Amino acid sequence: MKTNTLLLALYIFIAPLSYSQDVTTIEAKNADISEHLNLEAIATLFGEVEDLESFERELNNPKTQLSNLDLNRDGKVDYIRVVETSENDAHIIILQAVIWKDEYQDIATIEVDLDHNGKQHVQIVGDVYMYGPDYIIEPVYVYRPRLFIYLYRPFRSVWVSPYYWDYYPSYYYAWSPVHIDVYYHHIYTHINHHYTYHYVSNRRCRRADYIRRDYSRNDYRRHHPNRTFADRNPGVRNSRSISNQRVSASAQRTQTREGVSNRRNTNVRNASRANSSSYNTRNNERTRRTATTERSHKRSIERTGRSSSVERRNSAGNLRNYSQNRSSNRSQPTSTNRSFSRNSSKTSTHTRRSTPNTSRSSARSHSRSGSQRLSSVERRSNSRSSSRRF
């Protein structure tokens, strides 16, 4: 049993190595900076907060870590500030990374506008330098976001973040960026999948760039003019294509791992079945032996039972014979006694009958002998007297 267990363990560890030549590993390309801030997660957050101050707080919350962006490469995730500007019914909300003293870089804009029916529409537009051209997400929420009430409240002041380099809110502390695959798995849990995220190519608010001109900042682009999205990703239109490629590669890696895991499990099952088959064979052989022994024992018991039955029958017969003999022996003395008693009674009767005669004969003979003795005495006395005379 121990030998089979050791062989099974070796088979489990060696089997995956035998399949390693058949596994095709797909290495994802180096992550683009646009992948480190998922705009679908930003759209989810926008539909769940009640004002822009709360929006900025949750965007930089160290507990949720919605951002993984480190533009200045200082080993810390950049703080993202929120700046709002508006014109008539259009509200433009700019997301800017704080990269140095008085230096900021536009990441994306959230554009809220009313159509001719008075219905609000939201579009999250990635900056062209960061995400490539026409990277536009139009979310469809299940319920009307509370933030719409806040944005269209009368006599409200626009929100401009008061924070800048080395001056942050008390709840904030910088965290280290993680590998892009780790970030993808983490951010997936912060996307509300009950919402719908449409990728469109046309902006609803055509005056958005003009409205935000006074607040827009592109200091990182100014320092790195040759690091545009097209320069970083030749032949790729925008960041959505990169995300799709990464998701496909991740799915294929998952399928590959599952395939290896399934083959490993199959090998384990096969080895377990082989071991179980061997064990079952031995167990069946033991069972057959046990059954044979039990049958032999049962037959012996049956033979013993038959012998005991014969002996019991013989004993019963002997007992009956003994009983019969005893009863016959008892009956014979009874008849003898009866005959003996009859004879005794007859003898006693005859004795009783003969007893008077015998008594009389005895008396007679007794008297005779007495007379004879008297006669002899008399004769002796007569003789003595005669002699004295002479």
Label this structure with key terms:
390 residues, elongated, disordered C terminus, 10 helices, 6-stranded antiparallel β-sheet, 6 strands, alpha+beta
Structure write-up:
With 390 residues, this protein is α+β, with helices and mostly antiparallel strands. It has a domain at 33-232. The protein contains ten helices and six strands. Helix 1 runs antiparallel to helix 10 (239-389). The protein starts with a helix and ends with a helix. Mean pLDDT is 79; it is low at 11-29, 333-341, 343-363 and 386-390.
**How many whole angstroms does the radius of gyration measure?**
65 Å
Helix and strand run: HHHEEEEHEHHEHHHH
How big a fraction of the residues is strand? 5-15%
N- and C-termini, Cα separation:
150 Å
Instruction: Please state how the strands of the largest beta sheet are arranged side by side.
Output: 1-2-3-4-5-6
Write the layout of secondary structure elements.
Elements: H1 2-18, H2 39-46, H3 52-59, E1 80-87, E2 90-100, E3 103-114, E4 120-126, H4 128-131, E5 136-140, H5 147-151, H6 180-188, E6 196-200, H7 208-211, H8 219-223, H9 229-232, H10 239-389
Helix pairs in contact: 1-10
In short:
The chain is of the alpha+beta class.
